[in-house]
Amino acid sequence: MTDHDTPDLPARIEAAAARLTAAAGSRTPCAPVREFLGREDIDAAYEVQRRIAAGRSAAGARVVGAKIGLTAPAVQQQFGVFRPDFGVLFDDMMYAHTEPLPLNRFLQPRAEGEIAFVLGQDIDRPGAGVADVLRATEFVLPAIEIVDSRITGWDLAITDTVADNASSGAFVLGTTPYPLSGLDLSRVGMVLQRDGEPVSFGAGHACLGSPVVAVAWLARELAAREQPLRAGDVVMSGALGPMVPIGGPGRYRLALDGLGEVEAVIEEETK
User: Fold this and answer.
1) Confidence of residue 78 (pLDDT cuts 50, 70, 90)
2) How confident is the model at residue 7 (pLDDT cuts 50, 70, 90)?
3) Whole-angstrom Cα distance, residue 68 to residue 55?
4) Does residue 75 have a pLDDT over 80?
5) What pLDDT score does 96 carry?
6) How far apart are alpha carbons 189 and 171 in whole angstroms?
7) How far apart are the first and last CA of the chain?
8) pLDDT at residue 270 above 70?
9) 31 vs 29: CA distance, rounded Å
């Protein structure tokens, strides 16, 4: 499809949503959707994301929070996309420490180490800042996100990953909560191991300067779109270091300085 024969915007949004939905349903990666949306129309891409999320909700999935993508410079460099984005977290994406994840639910999975925020209060002010995030956060958890892409070969422009729910797959939460009081998350170091071998290193400052800053950015974005963060939401605040391809079954263990550990167990199939 060329610029000269593209249909009007609603039809292009519908075509992008249909392509990504079909790819997810068949577990077969698809061509980029930027051919419908262009490379820079973020609002159109978020409308695709909204439509797909509404379809999942209508099918019975429950929204449990939000995720931030493309926060770490190492990840931005991996894809040549240099601004953050966000997506929706659903209950069927959520796993606990050591709970098996079936490999066949993913298309092109990769693992990254993060800090998850669990909110005790709404954050609904369009001008929300770090003080609002600190006040609203009930506790944080070590977390591993399994990112995934419906786009063949992770060939992404910003509109591709936004439309594809910020390349979401699943997330694994630790089971020991840590209050934020006295913690400087910008100084938290991270090591992600695969089957006992270190494969990714990072720190809190790689996540937009601090994961708290990243969550404040998300709160403002969602409030501006009239989809504010609510008490009880889980927020995956963004990668602290490079993402790691998942080529098969394995155990991915994340250690965060002062915030404990969490392990994602990828199995060929769950029992």
Assistant:
1) low
2) low
3) 21
4) no
5) 98
6) 20
7) 44
8) no
9) 7
Single-letter amino acid code for the residue at 5 = D
Tokens of 239: 């990668």
| Token output for 21 | 């939905």
Residues 40/74, Cβ–Cβ less than 8 Å: no
HSE, CB side, 13 Å, CA atoms: give it for residue 205: 2
Q: Mean pLDDT across the stretch 238-244? A: 93
Residues in the chain: 271
Among 255, 261, 242, CA closest to 110: 242
Q: Strand, coil or helix: what is 90?
A: strand
Grouping H, G, I as helix, E, B as strand and the rest as coil, residue 1 is coil
Asked if residues 150 and 24 have their Cβ atoms less than 8 Å apart, the reply is yes
Q: pTM above 0.85?
A: yes
Contact 166, 86 (CB under 8 A): yes
Residue 243: exposure state from Cβ atoms within 10 A (0-12, 13-18, ≥19): buried
Query: Position 271: which residue type?
Result: K
Question: What residues have CB less than 8 Å from 136, skipping those under 6 apart?
Answer: 119, 120, 121, 122, 123, 229, 231
What are the tens digits of pLDDT across the range 99-135?
999 999 999 999 999 999 999 999 998 899 999 999 9
> Which H or E element spans position 134?
helix 130-136
